[in-house]
Amino acid sequence: MDPEDYSELIADLAPARRTEVVAAHEAIGRTVSADIVAVRPVPEFPTSAMDGFALDEAAVAAAGRGEEITVVGDTPAGHESAPLSPGCAVRVMTGAPVPTAAEAVVPVELTDAEPTGPAPSTIRLASVPETARDGWNIRAVGEDIAGGEVVVAAGARLTSAGVGTLIMLGIEEVEVIAAARVGVIVTGDELRAHAAEATGPTIFNSNLPMLVSALSATGVEVSEAICGDEPDQLLGLLNGMEDEVDLVLTTGGISAGAFEVVRQALESEHSTFARVGMRPGSPQGHGRFGTVPMLHFPGTPQGAFLAFHLFARSLLVGRPLRSRWKKGICAGPGPARHEKAVTFRPGGFTDTGEIAAAARSRLRDFAAADVIIRIPQGTGETPAGSVIEYLDCTSGRSRPN
Question: Within 10 A of 66 (CB to CB), how many other CB atoms are there?
Answer without folding.
Answer: 11
